[in-house]
Amino acid sequence: MTLQRSGGRRGRAAKRASSAEQTFDAAWRQWKRPYPPVEQFSADEIESIHETSLRVLRDIGIKVLNDEARGLYRSAGMTEVDDKIIRFDPDALMALMAHAPADVTLHSRNPTRTQTLGGPNVGITTSAGSPNCSDLQGGRRPGTHADYDNFCKVAQAFDVIHFIGPVVEPQDVPLGLRHLHMTRSIAALTEKIPFVYFRGRQAIADSYEILRLAHGLGEDEFPNTCVSYSVANSNSPLQLDGLMCRGIIDAARAGQMMILTPFTLAGAMAPVTIPGALVMQNAEALAGLCLSQIVRPGSPVCYGSFTSNVDMRTGAPAFGTPEYVKAAFASGQLARRYNVPLRSSAPTASNAPDAQAAYESQMSLWGALMGGANLILHGAGWLEGGLTISAEKFIIDVEVLQMFAEIFKPVEVTEATLAYDAIADVRHGGHFFGTQHTLDRFETAFYSPLLSDWSNFENYRDRGAMDTTQRANRIFFDTLAAHEDPAMPQDRLEAIDAFIAKRTQEGGADIEQ
Amino acid sequence: MTLQRSGGRRGRAAKRASSAEQTFDAAWRQWKRPYPPVEQFSADEIESIHETSLRVLRDIGIKVLNDEARGLYRSAGMTEVDDKIIRFDPDALMALMAHAPADVTLHSRNPTRTQTLGGPNVGITTSAGSPNCSDLQGGRRPGTHADYDNFCKVAQAFDVIHFIGPVVEPQDVPLGLRHLHMTRSIAALTEKIPFVYFRGRQAIADSYEILRLAHGLGEDEFPNTCVSYSVANSNSPLQLDGLMCRGIIDAARAGQMMILTPFTLAGAMAPVTIPGALVMQNAEALAGLCLSQIVRPGSPVCYGSFTSNVDMRTGAPAFGTPEYVKAAFASGQLARRYNVPLRSSAPTASNAPDAQAAYESQMSLWGALMGGANLILHGAGWLEGGLTISAEKFIIDVEVLQMFAEIFKPVEVTEATLAYDAIADVRHGGHFFGTQHTLDRFETAFYSPLLSDWSNFENYRDRGAMDTTQRANRIFFDTLAAHEDPAMPQDRLEAIDAFIAKRTQEGGADIEQ
Question: Which residues span the membrane (chains A, B) (predicted)?
Answer without folding.
Answer: none
